[in-house]
Please model this.
Amino acid sequence: MNTQTQIKVWDLPLRVFHWTLVASFLIAYITEDDFMTVHSYAGYTIMALIVFRLIWGFIGSQHARFSDFVCTPTATLTYLKDVFYNRSQRYLGHNPAGAAMVIALLVSLLITTITGLAVFATEEGLGPLVSLMDTTPNYIFDAAEDVHEFFANVTLALIVFHIIGVVVTSLSHKENLIRSMMTGYKNPE
Model:
């Protein structure tokens, strides 16, 4: 790869965020019931990463900013239709489907981590929500646990769709998006 003929698209903080999030979610998902300490640390890491990404979405480099890639649902649906007919436009940063996926993953992970904090406080008596959950009725705890598990699985499904989208886009535009997310570079055209 000759980086002199390529453009820097993904900055180092965004790439570190992405791959740390991948590892943290994988660890949290695998350790869900058997290793609560590891599971909770992975969850705290995910929450910190979400906070970072929300901030970086406003102050980060051009293609990391939400203003660079978030678009309307109509634009996203038009893009997906174009993908289906193999005529989708190439984007240097996130395409509209990728943008929608970023938002969906952030929302799903945020719900998962907040409800995880509630479950951790109730089951283990630990974490920042202990005092709040101490007086909470059991049906609220049960609901938080159900929502936590549901959105962890929603997140997993979104990740599968994300990977499919990366593969389809890579093949369609003849570029290796996984390598781009590792190196930060993409071809200009």
Notes: The first helix runs from residue 12 to 30. Residues 9 and 92 are 7 Å apart (CA to CA). DSSP finds eight helices and two strands in the chain.
